[in-house]
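Backbone-to-sequence.
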């Protein structure tokens, strides 16, 4: 079984992935942010490095989904392959930070990859306001994220909302992380696990 968590930068995906993996004894797959050799260069010069950073993520995500599909374990994944093509690459293209030539090549590669893999059994979307994600980004203190532009985050948020509103590839759970502070409040975390149980097992 494949459970995936989607959401903007700083929405709490990695934290919730870890907490759910521990709670359910699921196997976790984390987004390879700290190991992406292009990240620091990307935030310093987005236009120059946008195609490189997106292809790197797409390759890693595709490899993960293929391995998840072959596994007999229940796996929870921090970020999905969909977000690369529906959120991040189009946002960079619309901002003039990825050329149309690179964007078209990227989408052709994504379409080929998507034809070879299955959608998650459950997609959990973490809905978060821009002030909340900015606060979380500052708290975790990744030096290369200090230069992230607010208009970049806002563009991502709008694309997430548009994508989720039309998502029909499988079961979907939307979690309002401005309201449900799952990391700090056990009752809020339990609310999320109750909703997951209902989606996966129809208990409620």
């Amino acid at each position: 079984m494949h459970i995936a968590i989607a959401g903007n930068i700083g929405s709490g995906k990695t934290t919730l992935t870890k907490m759910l993996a521990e709670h359910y004894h699921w196997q976790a797959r984390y987004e390879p942010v700290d190991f992406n050799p292009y990240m620091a260069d990307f935030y310093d010069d987005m236009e120059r490095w946008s195609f490189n950073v997106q292809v790197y993520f797409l390759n890693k995500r595709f490899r993960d989904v293929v391995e998840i599909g072959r596994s007999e374990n229940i796996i929870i994944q921090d970020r999905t392959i969909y977000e690369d093509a529906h959120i991040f690459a189009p946002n960079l293209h619309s901002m003039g930070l990825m050329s149309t030539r690179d964007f078209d090549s990227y989408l052709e590669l994504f379409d080929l990859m998507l034809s070879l893999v299955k959608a998650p059994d459950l997609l959990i979307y973490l809905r978060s306001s821009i002030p909340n994600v900015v606060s979380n980004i500052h708290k975790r203190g990744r030096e290369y994220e200090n230069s992230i532009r607010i208009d970049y985050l806002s563009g991502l948020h709008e694309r997430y909302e548009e994508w989720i509103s039309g998502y029909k590839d499988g079961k979907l759970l939307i979690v309002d992380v401005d309201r449900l502070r799952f990391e700090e409040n056990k009752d809020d975390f339990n609310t999320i696990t109750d909703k997951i149980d209902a989606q996966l097992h129809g208990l409620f």
